[in-house]
Amino acid sequence: MKIAILNGPNLNLLGKREPEIYGNLTFEAYLSDLKSKFPEISFTYFQSNIEGELIDQLHAYGFSYDGIILNAGAYTHTSIGIGDAVKGITTPVIEVHISNTFSREEFRHQSYISPNAKGVIIGFGLQSYELAIQSFL
Protein backbone atom coordinates (compact mmCIF):
# COMPACT_ATOMS: atom_id res chain seq x y z
CA MET A 1 0.00 0.00 0.00
CA LYS A 2 1.25 3.48 -0.92
CA ILE A 3 0.19 6.51 1.11
CA ALA A 4 1.35 10.07 0.55
CA ILE A 5 1.36 12.54 3.43
CA LEU A 6 1.24 16.16 2.32
CA ASN A 7 1.71 18.97 4.83
CA GLY A 8 1.15 22.61 4.07
CA PRO A 9 2.44 25.93 5.35
CA ASN A 10 4.22 26.24 8.66
CA LEU A 11 4.00 22.53 9.42
CA ASN A 12 7.77 22.40 8.94
CA LEU A 13 7.85 24.23 12.29
CA LEU A 14 6.22 21.40 14.26
CA GLY A 15 8.10 20.92 17.51
CA LYS A 16 8.92 24.65 17.64
CA ARG A 17 5.73 26.51 16.69
CA GLU A 18 3.10 27.02 19.38
CA PRO A 19 3.86 23.80 21.30
CA GLU A 20 0.76 24.34 23.44
CA ILE A 21 -1.31 23.71 20.29
CA TYR A 22 0.94 21.52 18.13
CA GLY A 23 3.17 19.71 20.64
CA ASN A 24 6.95 19.37 20.88
CA LEU A 25 7.57 16.60 18.34
CA THR A 26 8.85 17.31 14.83
CA PHE A 27 6.91 15.74 12.00
CA GLU A 28 10.02 13.90 10.83
CA ALA A 29 10.32 12.17 14.23
CA TYR A 30 6.63 11.32 14.15
CA LEU A 31 6.91 9.98 10.61
CA SER A 32 9.70 7.67 11.72
CA ASP A 33 7.32 6.28 14.37
CA LEU A 34 4.59 5.79 11.76
CA LYS A 35 6.96 3.90 9.46
CA SER A 36 7.87 1.57 12.34
CA LYS A 37 4.24 1.07 13.31
CA PHE A 38 3.05 0.41 9.73
CA PRO A 39 5.92 -1.41 7.95
CA GLU A 40 3.53 -2.73 5.30
CA ILE A 41 2.92 0.82 4.02
CA SER A 42 5.20 2.69 1.67
CA PHE A 43 5.04 6.33 2.80
CA THR A 44 5.88 9.37 0.72
CA TYR A 45 6.16 12.63 2.63
CA PHE A 46 6.14 16.16 1.27
CA GLN A 47 5.85 19.52 3.01
CA SER A 48 5.66 22.92 1.37
CA ASN A 49 4.77 26.46 2.27
CA ILE A 50 3.84 27.02 -1.39
CA GLU A 51 0.27 26.37 -2.55
CA GLY A 52 1.16 25.41 -6.14
CA GLU A 53 3.68 22.82 -4.97
CA LEU A 54 0.99 21.11 -2.89
CA ILE A 55 -1.31 21.06 -5.92
CA ASP A 56 1.50 19.57 -8.03
CA GLN A 57 1.97 16.80 -5.46
CA LEU A 58 -1.76 16.05 -5.36
CA HIS A 59 -1.62 15.66 -9.16
CA ALA A 60 1.50 13.49 -8.95
CA TYR A 61 0.06 11.02 -6.41
CA GLY A 62 -3.63 11.43 -7.15
CA PHE A 63 -4.00 8.67 -9.72
CA SER A 64 -1.56 6.01 -8.53
CA TYR A 65 -1.50 5.98 -4.71
CA ASP A 66 -3.87 4.14 -2.40
CA GLY A 67 -4.43 7.21 -0.24
CA ILE A 68 -3.36 10.76 0.48
CA ILE A 69 -3.34 12.35 3.92
CA LEU A 70 -3.51 16.12 3.50
CA ASN A 71 -2.96 18.74 6.15
CA ALA A 72 -3.09 21.87 4.05
CA GLY A 73 -2.68 24.10 7.11
CA ALA A 74 -4.03 27.60 6.54
CA TYR A 75 -4.59 26.84 2.83
CA THR A 76 -7.51 24.67 3.97
CA HIS A 77 -9.45 27.85 4.60
CA THR A 78 -8.33 29.89 1.60
CA SER A 79 -7.38 27.69 -1.36
CA ILE A 80 -10.05 26.93 -3.89
CA GLY A 81 -7.19 25.58 -6.04
CA ILE A 82 -6.28 22.86 -3.52
CA GLY A 83 -9.96 22.01 -3.11
CA ASP A 84 -10.29 21.69 -6.89
CA ALA A 85 -7.15 19.51 -7.05
CA VAL A 86 -8.62 17.11 -4.47
CA LYS A 87 -11.85 17.01 -6.47
CA GLY A 88 -9.96 16.32 -9.70
CA ILE A 89 -7.99 13.24 -8.59
CA THR A 90 -9.13 9.66 -8.06
CA THR A 91 -7.00 8.74 -5.03
CA PRO A 92 -9.02 9.20 -1.83
CA VAL A 93 -7.89 12.07 0.38
CA ILE A 94 -8.28 12.33 4.14
CA GLU A 95 -8.09 15.91 5.40
CA VAL A 96 -6.38 16.12 8.78
CA HIS A 97 -5.78 18.86 11.31
CA ILE A 98 -3.68 18.59 14.44
CA SER A 99 -5.73 21.15 16.36
CA ASN A 100 -9.48 21.39 16.68
CA THR A 101 -10.02 24.08 14.06
CA PHE A 102 -13.56 24.66 15.33
CA SER A 103 -12.25 25.79 18.72
CA ARG A 104 -10.06 28.40 17.07
CA GLU A 105 -10.70 31.56 15.03
CA GLU A 106 -13.90 31.74 12.99
CA PHE A 107 -12.07 31.75 9.63
CA ARG A 108 -10.69 28.28 10.45
CA HIS A 109 -14.22 26.83 10.45
CA GLN A 110 -14.38 26.90 6.61
CA SER A 111 -12.65 24.22 4.50
CA TYR A 112 -12.39 24.15 0.72
CA ILE A 113 -11.05 20.59 0.97
CA SER A 114 -13.72 18.87 3.08
CA PRO A 115 -16.46 18.70 0.41
CA ASN A 116 -14.17 16.60 -1.80
CA ALA A 117 -12.36 14.56 0.85
CA LYS A 118 -13.14 10.97 1.78
CA GLY A 119 -13.16 12.13 5.40
CA VAL A 120 -11.92 14.71 7.87
CA ILE A 121 -10.05 14.13 11.14
CA ILE A 122 -9.68 17.15 13.39
CA GLY A 123 -8.20 17.81 16.78
CA PHE A 124 -6.41 14.63 17.84
CA GLY A 125 -2.90 16.05 17.67
CA LEU A 126 -0.42 14.12 15.58
CA GLN A 127 -2.55 11.03 16.17
CA SER A 128 -4.87 12.49 13.51
CA TYR A 129 -2.44 11.11 10.90
CA GLU A 130 -2.52 7.61 12.40
CA LEU A 131 -6.32 7.67 12.43
CA ALA A 132 -6.24 8.60 8.75
CA ILE A 133 -3.87 5.71 8.00
CA GLN A 134 -6.20 3.31 9.81
CA SER A 135 -9.08 4.51 7.64
CA PHE A 136 -7.15 3.35 4.56
CA LEU A 137 -6.43 -0.05 6.08
Automatic annotation (TrEMBL):
Catalytic site: Y22 (proton acceptor), H97 (proton donor)
Site feature Transition state stabilizer, where: R17
Pathways involved: Metabolic intermediate biosynthesis; chorismate biosynthesis; chorismate from D-erythrose 4-phosphate and phosphoenolpyruvate: step 3/7
Catalytic reaction list: 3-dehydroquinate = 3-dehydroshikimate + H2O
Alphabetized NCBIfam families for the sequence: aroQ, PRK05395.1-2, PRK05395.1-3, PRK05395.1-4
HAMAP family assigned: AroQ
Function: Catalyzes a trans-dehydration via an enolate intermediate.
Quaternary structure, from the entry: Homododecamer.
Protein's UniProt name: 3-dehydroquinate dehydratase
Protein's organism: Flavobacterium profundi
Gene: aroQ
